Amino acid sequence: MLMAILERTPVWVYVLFLALLGLGWTQSRDRIVPYARALILPLIMVLFSIYSVVSAFGMSIGVVAWSLGMIIVMALGIRIRAFYNAVFMEEHKAFAIKGSWLWLALMMVIFWLKFAVGVALARELEIVYEPWFILGISLCYGVLSGIFLVRMVILWKIKSLHVKH
Question: Where are the alpha helices (DSSP H) in the chain?
Fold first, then answer.
């Protein structure tokens, strides 16, 4: 069954997987990132996450669960010091960001979650119509999105603390 799933998986899914692996690997290295580019990855991952909920379940209770997961993580995440691993360098209009494997792990969790839901939808499994499944998957997407959104807010916060008015 696994081989049948992999054989029927569109090529673009493999390309996306490899792109996310590469992007995640770059996140594991210390780097200098321009301000605008530092905000793009978190924004893309949040959009990919909400797209995953809406494309799988429509504009349903899943969107509410996604929002709830994101709000919870935002409320807690702003307080986690490990996310403050960047310094804004005003002279370069860029961040010096310490590498972390966390971002690759999060990208992979979102990717594999979307893949698994896609397989379940393609196989027309009854589970995808169960309210607890929709709520649970959507909440997971929201929690993961919240982590990326926390990253974006913290980078903005770090920049605003370093910019002289």
Answer: 2-8, 11-27, 35-57, 61-77, 102-122, 131-162
pTM of the model: 0.84
Residue 34 pairs with which residues in a beta bridge? 94
Residue the block writes with tokens 């996604």: 66
Contacts of 84 (CB under 8 A, 6+ apart): 154, 158
DSSP annotation of 95 reads E
Q: Which residue in the block uniquely carries the two structure tokens 């916060």? A: 157
pLDDT in tens, the chain (165 residues): 888 888 899 999 999 999 999 999 999 999 999 988 888 888 888 898 899 899 999 998 999 999 999 999 999 887 777 778 899 998 889 999 999 998 899 989 989 999 999 999 999 999 999 999 999 999 999 999 899 899 888 998 898 887 655
Residue 68: C-alpha distances to residues 28, 138, 152 (Å): 29, 9, 18
